[in-house]
Design a protein that fits this description.
four-stranded antiparallel sheet, three-stranded antiparallel sheet, 1 helix, mainly beta
Length: about 120
Amino acid sequence: MFWHDMETSTVRLWVDGIPVGTPADLNPYGHWLDGRLLVVQAAGPDDHPLQSYGPGLPVTGILSVLIHDTAYGSTQTLIPGPRETWTEPQVVRAGETLRVYATPEARIADVPDRILSLRPAPE
């Protein structure tokens, strides 16, 4: 469940009554991969060299990605490196790997910024 605190304008993700991840600026929506992995975009690092700001808001919105694995009850936040321009990051499962694409165009061209190993679900 996503909890949007209107007072602080923050979004928090809760799974089975437990908050997951850090209280970062999460997108209030996520999507499921195979019913096992919840993928949510999150605010990118303020000090990212490609992050640029206009009056109060990012002009170039570099984003991070939170992934919650329900099979293991684990959560990780992927933070883009200095040369990774994740403006619309997408995560795709390909077999036992997760492929992280910076943009929809990178996904179409099949040019991932990262390929991560995915442990099989416990039996």
